[in-house]
Amino acid sequence: MSEILSRPAAVAVFDAYGTLFDVHSAVMRHAERVGPDAAKLSDVWRAKQLEYTWVLSLTGRYEPFWELTVRALDYAFEVVSAADRTTRADLLAAYRSLSAYPEAAEVLEALRAQGIPTAILSNGDPGMLASAVGTSGMTGHLDAVLSVDAVKIFKTHPKAYDLVVAHFGVTGAEVIFVSSNRWDVAGAAAYGFSPVWVNRLGRPDEYPGLNPVAVIGDLRGLV
To answer: How many distinct structural domains can be found in the chain?
Structure first.
């Protein structure tokens, strides 16, 4: 058992996009058609998608994550004007069936073998999540898939993290929360979860005082 799991844990909860699923896999599947600026298009798409969630939450508004994903791609095409716009429909279809990281399924099963239920808590709306989980073959590896659509506000608002506590009937201290997004780790820390940061790209730390209990290079660091 890893040092992370030596702390009391009733449930292990994972962010979906960027943590279990590779958000850049949609563009990479069609990179040759998109053109030489494919990576830039993907970066702008992701950054704008997240920005929309933060702005809406701060203004007390909500729109389903899929609508924001579509809007963010259209914005990215405007910014990365050399990218081939005829790929738009294929990119959106690919986003609904993102590739899971290669170690994701085995890590989820290893946790469940230790008696720790696994779940997703995501900004994704239920349709998006059902598609991503189903097409990646992850359905049997998760005990729950929770969407912020139920409370109509995105992470890092406390109401989003409330969904985990309510669903599993646990305290925040009993939740190991795993995310590749440092801002999400900060939100989980503020809420009272034990957050683990999956820092695949070796990014510098930020958000002092809202720290992860551990930093790992990929999901295998959990087990």
So the answer is: 2
Q: Are residues 47 and 129 in the same domain?
A: no
The predicted model gives 79-91 an average pLDDT of 98
- AA identity, residue 167: H
Contact 48, 74 (CB under 8 A): no
**Residues 113 and 213 placed together within one structural domain of the fold:** yes
Residues 143 and 217 in one domain: yes
Taking a C-beta distance cutoff of 8 angstroms, is the pair 173, 192 a contact? yes
* Amino acid at position 7, single letter: R
Looking at the fold, whether 107 and 199 belong to one and the same domain comes out as: yes
Looking at residue 71, its amino acid is R
pLDDT digits (tens, 9 = 90+) for 6-36: 666 789 999 999 999 999 999 999 999 999 9
Q: Tell me the whole-structure pTM to 2 decimals.
A: 0.95
Check the CA dihedral 81-82-83-84 and report its sign: positive
Residues serving a catalytic function are 15
- What does the pLDDT average to over 89-109? 97
- Residue span of the structural domain in which 65 resides: 25-95
